Automatic annotation (TrEMBL):
GO MF, any single term: microtubule binding
Protein name: SKA complex subunit 1 homolog
Keywords, comma-separated and alphabetical: Coiled coil
CC annotations in GO: mitotic spindle; outer kinetochore; spindle microtubule
Gene Ontology terms describing biological process: cell division; chromosome segregation; mitotic cell cycle; regulation of microtubule polymerization or depolymerization
Gene3D superfamilies: Ska1 microtubule binding domain-like (1.10.10.1890)
Stretches for region Disordered: 137-156
Family: Belongs to the SKA1 family.
Length: 277
């Protein structure tokens, strides 16, 4: 019996100690809260509000910068297209200035004194000369004269058998007279196509040919090319002349025999037809 009472007393003492420990911990926590409240007085709330407002304003500025940057990025492709269109227009205007007539014709004019004389009674008699003059004045002004842009057909100076035989064997290789002269026919055809592009009006050209026509016209005005029949290396597409080993050998032979001359304009290799010496 005594042992049971001792056990009950020990359990009660342990529970009381646990409760007291819990109360002490709670009191300590409340004390810490009081200390924290005293460390941050109410005046600091205004400072925190100001900091919060400044941060929000900076966020708005950053967002505005991002929006502006996005707009500028989206406008880059449009700007590139505008620049490209401006360059094309500039090229067209330069080409128009190159092919414009050098001098405009004089329009027929009649002075006021001559006109008043024609209207006066003493000149009311029908005069054939005056009638012709009046008709000429009343007519529409004559159209502007067109510059002569016609060109002769590209020459085809074929290679003779003796010329081909005069070449060294390593240069001649397996080339035949038929292959070489067929290539000359192809080159004349290329040059004729370019000559047509030079004189053709825009309305008669397909849209995909207009850019090439402008390029060919610019090349045709260059020193060393002007007034001559020519074609681009990029024009070589057969049927007889191709940019293979045989085609390159043919070009070497024709260059040696004085049938062609070469130059560069920009990134283009220009082949000019010329009369052999």
């Amino acid at each position: 019996m005594m042992m049971m009472m001792d056990s009950t007393t020990e359990a009660s003492g342990s529970s009381l100690e646990s409760l007291m420990s819990s109360f002490n911990a709670r009191i300590t926590h409340l004390q810490e809260l009081v200390i924290a409240r005293n460390m941050f007085p109410a005046s600091s709330m205004a400072d925190l509000s100001a900091v919060d407002a400044a941060v929000k304003a900076m966020e708005l500025q950053v967002q505005a910068i991002k929006d502006r940057l996005r707009e500028e990025t989206q406008a880059i492709p449009k700007t590139k297209k505008l620049i490209s269109a401006s360059l094309k227009q500039q090229k067209k205007l330069q080409n128009m200035s190159l092919h414009a007539p050098s001098q405009l014709p004089d329009r027929v004019t009649v002075s006021d004194s001559n006109t008043s004389r024609c209207l006066s009674p003493e000149f009311s008699v029908q005069d054939p000369g005056l009638e012709a003059l009046n008709l000429k004045v009343n007519e529409e002004p004559p159209p502007l004269p067109k510059e002569k842009k016609g060109r002769s057909s590209p020459p085809m100076w074929h290679v003779t058998a003796s010329e081909l035989d005069s070449l060294s064997s390593y240069m001649r290789g397996r080339l035949t007279l038929e292959k070489v002269n067929a290539a000359i026919n192809d080159m004349a055809s290329y040059a004729e196509s370019n000559a047509q592009l030079i004189i053709a009006p825009k309305k008669k050209l397909a849209e995909n040919l207009w850019e090439k026509a402008l390029e060919i016209r610019d090349i045709a005005t260059m020193e060393g090319v002007k007034g001559k029949h020519f074609f681009l290396e990029a024009d070589i597409k057969g049927p007889s002349l191709k940019l293979d080993n045989t085609g390159k050998a043919i070009l070497t032979v024709l260059r040696h025999l004085g049938r062609i001359n070469e130059t560069r304009v920009g990134h283009h290799r220009i082949i000019i037809l010329q009369k052999p010496n």
